């Protein structure tokens, strides 16, 4: 850990997501699959991160560095859309930057009040946001989703108006203090991993580190 970063102690494998981040959405299905394979449940936490930067349009007389950055960003988008297509996932504008705090507070609420509905909540919010089927900033829309997937919403209005915001801020401070800055982020055995590409290594760790670790 670097100076000013504290160790994040977790009692079970943890994954951090941001509903507006396409990388987090693409990690959803393989993370669910790992949970099912190993019979475990990750601790799902919200971590609101900066939006992805939209690639600059091609400009006349752009220098080599600018051109490389533009091409790299364009490839990155194509790569995500290629994987989304394989998963059958709809991806709208990757660079939107809505306020996802209400959906994040609802994640904390669902974990605490209706944990059996958590997976359905995550799946529904991601699917509907990325297919542009609802306004993720609309508290009433979030509440409807929670009710639809079986979340107990008694007391939700009071929670989202006060304690929920404080809970989200405390969670964010804890995660950022431990050096988490991007999603999806995994914390396993006090080790941090950024990106779904690390799931084979995470699986190896969670199954007793038998044999050679995946490359």
Task: Explain what the structure shows.
It is a single chain. Strand 1, helix 1 and strand 2 (43-46) form a beta-alpha-beta unit. The protein has a four-stranded mixed β-sheet with strand order 2-1-3-4, with helices on both faces. The chain has 215 residues and is of the alpha+beta class. It has eight helices and four strands, in the order E-H-E-H-H-H-H-H-H-E-E-H. The chain has helices at 22-38, 64-87, 101-113, 118-130, 139-148, 156-161, 163-177, 199-206, and strands at 14-17, 43-46, 185-188, 191-194. The longest helix is centred in the middle third of the chain and has 24 residues, at 64-87. The chain starts with 13 loop residues before the first strand and ends in a 9-residue tail after the last helix. 49% of the residues lie in helices and 7% in strands. It has two domains: 14-51 and 96-206, 3-Layer(aba) Sandwich (Glutaredoxin), CATH 3.40.30; 52-95, no CATH class.
Kindly summarize this structure in a few lines:
49% of the residues lie in helices and 7% in strands.
CATH level 4 superfamily of the largest domain: Glutaredoxin
Order of helices and strands: EHEHHHHHHEEH
State the low-pLDDT regions, or none: none
Number of domains: 2
Measured between the Cα atoms of the first and last residue, the distance is 23 Å
Which overall shape is indicated by the principal axes computed on the Cα atoms? Answer: globular
């Amino acid at each position: 850990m670097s100076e000013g970063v504290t160790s994040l102690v977790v009692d079970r494998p943890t994954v951090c997501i941001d509903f507006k981040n396409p990388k987090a959405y693409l990690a959803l299905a393989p993370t669910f699959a790992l949970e099912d394979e190993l019979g475990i449940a990750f601790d799902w936490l919200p971590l609101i991160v900066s939006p992805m930067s939209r690639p600059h349009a091609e400009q006349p007389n752009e220098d080599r560095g600018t051109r490389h950055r533009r091409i790299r960003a364009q490839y990155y988008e194509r790569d995500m859309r290629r994987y989304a297509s394989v998963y059958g996932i709809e991806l709208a504008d990757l660079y939107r930057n809505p306020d996802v705090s209400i959906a994040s507070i609802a994640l904390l609420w669902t974990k605490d009040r209706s944990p059996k509905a958590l997976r359905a909540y995550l799946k529904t919010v991601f699917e509907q946001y990325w297919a542009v089927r609802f306004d993720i900033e609309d508290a009433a829309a979030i509440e409807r989703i929670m009710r639809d997937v079986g979340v107990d919403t008694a007391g939700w209005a009071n929670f989202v108006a006060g304690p929920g915001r404080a809970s989200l801020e405390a969670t964010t401070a804890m995660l950022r203090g431990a050096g988490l800055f991007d999603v999806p982020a995994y914390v396993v055995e006090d080790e941090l991993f950024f990106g779904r590409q690390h799931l084979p290594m995470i699986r190896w760790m969670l199954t007793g580190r038998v044999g050679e670790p995946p490359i």
